[in-house]
């Protein structure tokens, strides 16, 4: 069976980039090579950006009610092919089919939200802001936007940005992750048939060189990225120097705080899903548990460890794992697996107790995959490297706090501030946690406090390098320029 070579999508056509460099796309569950991803360069970026720039004036002037029509068609096309795309996503990324389907549903929600742009993009008007003078606020599209996508959510994360950019009247250049480019290649094929004018949407495959060329291009007005905080800091710096908009979403170390009054049976099941879904490779995955009080700590350690030992690990497309909603697949690559192993060794050297070692997991007949099972450290102290570092795998650290305020302090002193949740039946504790915890997304008795598409998505501190949030009404401010009009008219003489 021949291995397909992926192509770029520029000005409404599929084109083979003029490059001799390619990256093999692997199935992380088996090591099988699925495709060859071209590593495009500056010439390919130039073609795509120029195409988007030429398309912008016509698309900008298209009424909003007509701009959203291709998005309606795309949502229908994706729903009709949900199983196909979820399977493709699982093959190249390694998450379970259930997680892939849930990811697609969130992509659908974002498209549907963006389809409300004729209402969402409305301006404001104040009649009589002064005598005989009216004031008006317009939200206008800006030009060409671009983004670099992460590997962990190849179908969802692009739709935090893409449908909103198009619906507001901007044009777009998207760079999929070179590790998982096949999902967006298939989505782009569907988008091709949805009636967008040539150049409004473009796709360029490649690695970091493409991202850097997009940021540097003078016709690109704004850039989005989801990646490490180090990458986000660099993107923010480069964009700020050129007065470009940027929305850079960085790392995370999401904490779950368990209070003594929490309902532990429900809590442990909820935490397990939060910690191990997608093999821990999601920005909202919980990776640190803070138990308040000695009794709570002992109970959580015992119960969470017992539950973690039952989580199955295997190829998400093969039985019995295919139909098991609790099963986790591999991590994305050999490099990612090696880093997780390195962090486990550091945790042991730091003095934490390795209560469950996922390196011992065995998946029959799948020695080529990048598997690691649930891993749990107890006796973890704030400031340990395994607590401060985003490991991005199924590795969980458990800490103990003497009070709710101490637990909040542990979170607030951490460099990341993406999400955090509290388990409690006490309204006072929940309210205090919501108000004082320095994280952008807060949950109460919810293990994954990821907001629905109509609400903003984004963290604080080193988890977000931007002035805006992703998705929903909040991201419209990123994709539009606010123009304020002050006007009056004198009566005609006579």
Quick overview:
It is built from 17 helices and 22 strands.
Attribute tags:
single chain; 494 residues; alpha/beta; Aldehyde Dehydrogenase, Chain A, domain 1; Aldehyde Dehydrogenase, Chain A, domain 2; six-stranded mixed sheet; 17 helices
Q: Could you walk me through the main structural features you see in this protein, from its secondary elements to its overall organization?
A:
The protein is an alpha/beta fold. The protein folds into two domains: 265 residues, 3-Layer(aba) Sandwich (Aldehyde Dehydrogenase, Chain A, domain 1); 191 residues, Aldehyde Dehydrogenase, Chain A, domain 2 (3-Layer(aba) Sandwich), CATH 3.40.309. Helices cover 36% and strands 22% of the residues. It is built from 17 helices and 22 strands. A seven-stranded mixed sheet has the order 14-15-16-13-12-18-19, with helices on both faces. The chain has a six-stranded mixed sheet with strand order 9-8-7-10-11-21. Helix 7 links the parallel strand 7 and strand 8. The longest helix is centred in the first third of the chain and has 19 residues. The radius of gyration is 24 Å and the shape is globular. The N and C termini lie far apart (85 Å). The model has no long low-confidence stretch (mean pLDDT 96).
Query: Taking strands numbered 1, 2, ... along the chain, how are they ordered across the largest sheet?
Result: 14-15-16-13-12-18-19
- Going by CATH, the homologous superfamily of the largest domain would be Aldehyde Dehydrogenase, Chain A, domain 1
Main β-sheet description? 7 strands, mixed
What is the overall silhouette?
globular
Number of helices: 17
Structural class: alpha/beta
Number of E-state strands: 22
Task: Please compute the radius of gyration using only Cα atoms.
Answer: 24 Å
When the domains are counted, the total is 2
Provide the CATH topology of the largest domain: Aldehyde Dehydrogenase, Chain A, domain 1
N- to C-terminal separation? 85 Å
Q: Helix coverage percent of residues?
A: 25-40%
């Amino acid at each position: 069976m021949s291995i397909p070579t992926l192509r770029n999508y520029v000005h409404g056509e599929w084109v083979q980039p003029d490059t001799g460099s390619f990256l093999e796309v692997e199935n992380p569950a088996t090591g099988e090579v699925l495709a060859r991803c071209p590593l495009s360069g500056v010439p390919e970026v130039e073609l795509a950006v120029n195409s988007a720039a030429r398309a912008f004036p016509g698309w900008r002037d298209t009424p909003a009610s007509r701009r959203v029509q291709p998005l309606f068609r795309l949502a229908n096309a994706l729903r009709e092919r949900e199983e196909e795309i979820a399977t493709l996503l699982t093959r190249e990324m390694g998450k379970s089919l259930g997680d892939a389907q849930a990811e697609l549903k969130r992509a659908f929600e974002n498209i549907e939200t963006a389809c409300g742009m004729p209402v969402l993009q409305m301006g404001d008007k104040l009649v009589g802001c002064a005598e005989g003078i009216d004031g008006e606020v317009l939200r206008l599209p800006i030009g060409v936007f671009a983004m670099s996508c992460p590997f962990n959510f190849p179908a969802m994360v692009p739709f935090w940005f893409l449908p909103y950019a198009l619906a507001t009247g901007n044009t777009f250049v998207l760079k999929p992750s070179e590790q998982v480019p096949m999902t967006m290649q298939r989505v782009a094929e569907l988008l091709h048939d949805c009636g967008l004018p040539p150049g409004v949407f473009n796709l360029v495959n490649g690695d970091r060189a493409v991202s850097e060329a997009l940021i540097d291009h003078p016709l690109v007005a704004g850039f989005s990225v989801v990646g490490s905080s180090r990458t986000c800091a660099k993107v923010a710096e480069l964009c700020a120097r050129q007065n470009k908009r940027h929305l850079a979403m960085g790392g995370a170390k999401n904490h779950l705080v368990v209070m003594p009054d929490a309902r532990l049976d429900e809590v442990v099941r909820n935490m397990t899903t939060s910690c191990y879904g997608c093999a821990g490779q999601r920005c909202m995955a919980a990776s640190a548990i803070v138990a308040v009080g000695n009794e709570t700590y002992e109970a959580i350690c015992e119960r969470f460890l017992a539950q973690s030992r039952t989580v199955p690990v295997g190829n998400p497309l093969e039985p019995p794992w295919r139909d098991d909603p609790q099963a986790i697949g591999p991590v994305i690559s050999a490099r990612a697996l090696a880093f997780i192993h390195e962090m486990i060794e550091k945790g042991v050297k730091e003095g934490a107790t390795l209560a469950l070692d996922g390196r011992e997991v065995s998946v029959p007949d799948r020695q080529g995959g990048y598997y690691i099972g649930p891993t749990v450290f107890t006796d973890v102290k704030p400031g340990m490297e395994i607590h401060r570092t985003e490991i991005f795998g199924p590795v969980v650290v458990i800490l103990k706090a003497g009070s709710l305020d101490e637990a909040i302090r542990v979170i607030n002193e951490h460099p990341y501030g993406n999400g955090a949740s509290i388990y409690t039946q006490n309204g006072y504790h929940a309210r205090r946690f919501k108000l004082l915890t320095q994280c952008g997304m807060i949950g109460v008795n919810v293990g994954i406090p990821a907001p629905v598409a109509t609400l903003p998505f984004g963290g604080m501190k080193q988890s977000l390098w931007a002035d805006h949030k992703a998705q929903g009404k909040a991201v419209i401010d990123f994709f539009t320029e606010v123009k304020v009009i002050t006007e009056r008219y004198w009566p005609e003489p006579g």
